[in-house]
Design a protein that fits this description.
The structure is a homotrimer. Chain A is an all-alpha fold. Chain A contains 14 helices and no strands. In chain A, helix 2 runs parallel beside helix 4. The radius of gyration of chain A is 21 Å and the shape is globular.
């Protein structure tokens, strides 16, 4: 009986930990909603809010019926799972896995709403969100996180002996969301008036810096659930029976914090040097850049490694955001620079900065670690293969998807709707019916 | 010593789980505040915010001194508890029960502030909130959740052999709040200008769709604490010593998610079919409708059952909201359709869709389950008796309470105050002193 | 093996509890950001938001490199720690201590941004925040919370036999932040136009009461993590192996709740009596006053003691806020009255109201308790010495710091910048580019 209680309790700790972490990850949906609402103009506020609400809702159903089966169902092969549809025959004592996995799928999906904001049709967005949460994302999650996945580090015979190490999803969640968004931003095209004939950029500031900041804090908060909860357990035991499991989540919390801060400060400084002002919105994006960058390696790097990862992540964000403008790609939220570019960097950084001690502690494997600690190129090689494969998959399948929608004339709203705003035309009225809004002052700047 | 540590730890897991769940439920107060603030006009924003702040505060003191004793105190009889006033002699190692129960009482109370918003006097509202949290709600909680309560499923000799099964409070919290609010909305009467002589409805949109959305996400987030925390423990043991307790909370998390999503999507579709637009606010109410509907049965239905419950809950919300307009009852937040109607539905749904396996796992009883699974009418009968009894209690006592306030001329603010707004007259100025607000465009629509 | 699992699990419960509590404390950064943004005028919104974002970020790096070593590093002496810089050689299985401690340091730092809002230079604020999180706060944390600290109740030979009892930081966090802010408010001087020649006060209401309310709820929510998490563990064992550790956190949750409510109601009533209106903002400050006041004693007083502490805390807040105006000190957020004055009161209240039973349960000491329970003056004496010492330290070092910045002409922005607002001049544009803002109506009132 004592033994039973011990096992029951150990299990309960893990269940409680994963569920509560999942609740925090869920709140990131609210964070994204605030971030995106604040970043668009008032005329499209209800539109982007409803997209965020609906990708959470549609994501549940799509992931419940199909997505979870494709990512984690049994039986499965190296490419995909094909059982446990609609949770059929899935053991109730593991439902936390479904819940936690859903919050990740919803995160991957919602990233795109930022990239394509203010000019994409509502129905096209809903079709996209169902497609991503039911199929595109789950396949990637299966590749990397299912023991049978062909890229998995937990595979019995992992690719080039290591597979891909992606602790909480720099690639699985953020590269998927970021590159899907990039495809969307390119194919749907820039907002009317965003670039003039000479390629100069018209600033289109969002309507509320406060909402963006609120969203940023909610995301940082939720990210603690995202990264620590990815440990999956707080008590699992490997070598040292006393502390390993719970040590991992402590390392994750510390590294997540350090990288977020390093990203935020780096962008503040870089933008100050470039533009001569202390910029709030880009600093918040710098924090998110740091968070995305540390997501893959949060359990396996030292805090000073996390600092370096966040610092470089912030720099990559600034460069990547600037590149998009040069290429005349309009990403109103800078969601691709944050999630796509930094997702790639975070995945590769594992190959550079993972320590032997921490790689062993996470139970994945004991014999490969980061290049900078003398671990050679093998781990880095696995990371490169993983991220390239996932980008290829996302670009191919989501690119095709958006191109088909474009051909069917379903992707973009009419210029009239874009000028007047989605809220008036499609959503029954403006978000702030009592607020007098003025014309935004236009400045034209060089990218 | 090892045995001691095992018991200590098992207990600690439960304590931590219940406290953290309670913290999430508390945050629903903030969610309601944002939801309600966004749903009223700027001239009453501070008024509704202060009502939300104060029902939390007054709710603490009222529930601490009286409410907890009436709901959970000992000694007690079938109707009410009458000991442990002000936590006297209540064991400190169970204070979590007080804390968690308070967050529920505060939720029941705050629902009403939506129904009667924009025209109810501040003092009347404070008196109401003290009355509900100190007496009306605790009595119902005692009936259904105390082992000595006459409707309790845990009663040694439960009513018609089953009592009422209400896992997290579709009836105890939401029917109480919803029907109290309905009484208030009827007795205080509609806002000036809400209905014209021909019964047509003048839309009075709230001032910020963004705040409503933020509130919706905070409520969904808090609801995870509300429903899972109602398990009361993460490690309790019945048949299978290893997994039962922690399994319940996993089932709850999954079902809560699926029902919320089903409710949101259903309302989006129904309103699109009826009005031809994708409506944000009603979709958010659809999510809440799904959440209220699943609250009673979240631990005892299959996920596809949760889907059905959310789908029907969303439909009931739409019908119920439309009915209120037909009846010229002005509920600015649609709080009755969400909490009252769906609370009834959620309670009855247990009698239809509870499975034998899950009813056994929750430890309530082993020999009654849902009609649709061949469990017969007994469980459903208990649910009907329970919900009818609670409605009768609330309508009688809260109806009398509001009628007395009305007779004493304490219930409604003056027409002048209503036109100018509460904030200017009672609260020292407007919520947004720098914002230029315009006259809302009026449309007149058929209900 | 069973024994190993038992220890692992007990440890995991504590780790999960402390980490999740720390996540909630982190969210207080978002709460402060919303509270402060809503309390300033639109022209300085982005400025105060960025200060909040940056004190979190800079606080991480400063505390990671220096602060944690000074507060908790080993080796150490009675004044300061001087090892484990940048977490060097600090055991990874205790990283939660760094994480949790950082969230507290960031809280202490961010309080000041309220006191000096709308007229302090951005660089001066960043320098301040790094100074506080790297040195000023950590030294105080070391004095009181490190077993080697000269004021610590856990010192082997504590000062006057008791040391200072500050469970969650009324002194360590709030007195430090509050008095640092007071120094700032005095030295930087009032906002232009805040006081006229006759000492009359021009109200400068913040631009959004909704944001202030949201901030208040987020802070109350986060405070549950702040106070319960300060137990450091949920399962530790003293006399009674079964319940002590988990009992402490339950007492804390209940007391925190009761004191918050008492503070809010008290201020509502007092301001109603004085000004004849139900005031939202000061009621929210009353809640915060209750929370600050209970922070030191939340684990060692009875709930009715918490009620008294909150009630007196609310009264002290009102008096203190009124005194500042009389003294022509401009604290736009009333952050000193909330954190400074109530922090002092909360610390002293322990010496009056701590019970013998609960003092024993917290493991600090068994033989001193509150004056009102016959414990004599010893505990109260320790509290007085502690709070006086900390105030002396903060006033001396932070006063000098701000005076030096002032001499170097780095502290205050130019009158032109203050009139036009920081956002236009330093941060690239206003927070709400589409909102038409009007001139605030001026009233002149007697203090």
């Amino acid at each position: 009986a004592l033994e039973d209680l011990t096992f029951t309790t150990a299990n309960a700790v893990n269940v409680v930990f994963v569920l509560l972490s999942g609740f925090l990850v869920f709140l990131m949906q609210g964070g994204f909603a605030m971030l995106e609402a604040g970043s668009v103009r008032t005329k499209n506020t209800k539109n982007v809010l409803l997209k965020n609400v609906l990708d959470a809702c549609c994501g549940v159903i799509a992931f419940y019926v199909f997505g979870f089966a494709f990512s984690s169902g049994e039986p499965s092969n190296a490419f995909i799972g094909y059982g446990n549809f609609a949770l059929a025959d899935f053991p109730k004592e593991q439902y936390r896995e479904f819940f936690f996995a859903w919050t990740f799928a919803a995160t991957a999906a919602t990233i795109v709403s930022g990239c394509v904001a203010e000019r994409t049709s509502f129905l096209a967005y809903l079709m996209y969100t169902v497609f991503v949460t039911s199929f595109v994302y789950p396949v990637v999650a299966h590749w990397i996180w299912s023991p049978s996945g062909w890229l998995s580090a937990e595979n019995e015979d992992p690719l080039i002996g290591v597979g891909v190490f992606d602790f909480a999803g720099s690639t699985v969640v953020h590269v998927v969301g970021g590159f899907a968004g990039l495809m969307g931003a390119i194919i749907v095209g820039p907002r009317l008036g965003r670039f003039d004939e000479d390629g100069r950029v018209t600033p289109m500031p969002g309507h509320s810096a406060t909402l963006v900041t609120l969203g940023g804090f909610l995301l940082w908060f939720g990210w603690y659930g995202f990264n620590t909860g990815s440990a999956g357990a707080a008590t699992f035991v490997i070598d040292d029976p006393e502390l390993i499991g719970s040590t991992v989540i402590q390392v994750v919390a510390a590294n997540t914090t350090v990288a977020a801060a390093a990203g935020g400060i780096t962008v503040l400084v870089l933008v100050r040097l470039r533009d001569g002002l202390f910029d709030l919105i880009s600093s918040l994006n710098g924090i998110l850049a740091g968070l995305v960058s540390i997501t893959a390696g949060c359990a396996v790097v030292e805090p000073y490694g996390a600092f370096a990862i966040g610092l470089i992540g912030g720099s990559i964000y600034v460069l990547s955001s600037w590149s998009l403008l040069l290429l005349r790609i309009d990403d109103p939220l800078d969601a691709y620079p944050v999630h796509g570019s930094c997702g790639v960097w975070g995945t590769l950084a594992v190959g550079l900065l993972a320590t032997k001690e921490l790689m062993a502690m996470t139970s994945y494997n004991n014999d490969s670690w980061g290049l900078f600690y003398g671990g050679g190129f093998r781990l880095l090689g696995g990371q490169v293969i993983g991220v390239v494969s996932v980008i290829a998959w996302v670009v191919a399948i989501i690119g095709s998807f958006f191109l088909i929608l474009q051909r069917l004339n379903l992707l973009r709203i009419s210029p009239e709707q874009e000028m007047r705003g989605n809220d008036q035309i499609k959503h029954g009225g403006v978000a702030y019916p009592e607020m007098k809004t003025g014309t935004r002052t236009r400045r034209v700047v060089e990218p």
